[in-house]
Amino acid sequence: xxxxxxxxxxxxxxxxxGRHSALADTTQDKGGRESGFRPHxxxxxxxxTCMNMAATMYAxxxxxxxxxxITKVTLDRSGSEQVVFRYSxxxxxxxxxxxxxxxxxxxxxxxxxxxxxxxxxxxx
Length: 124
Known about the structure:
The chain has 124 residues and is of the alpha+beta class. Helix content is 33%, strand content 28%.
């Protein structure tokens, strides 16, 4: 569970899971100070970090010599009915084509991506 608390200046929010904490904020043109991640950036980060970890875990489990993973995610909200996550995955290491394909396949089934693919409801 994540909990948040508003702080000064306006729109700055600290969020925590009880062990770790970070700041969220909005852009200056919306009254913020840009002192933390914007909320949509946190969505991008959730997917990017999960894909990165999935690649690393898959490589470790299968003794694949993966040395580094770079994932980039952008949330495109320009559509009226659907949002699109655009992403890229860069793999470094002495990898065969088959190993690269297997690792990339693992990123496509990371838990956050699977969660985002499901229908979402909000309960208060």
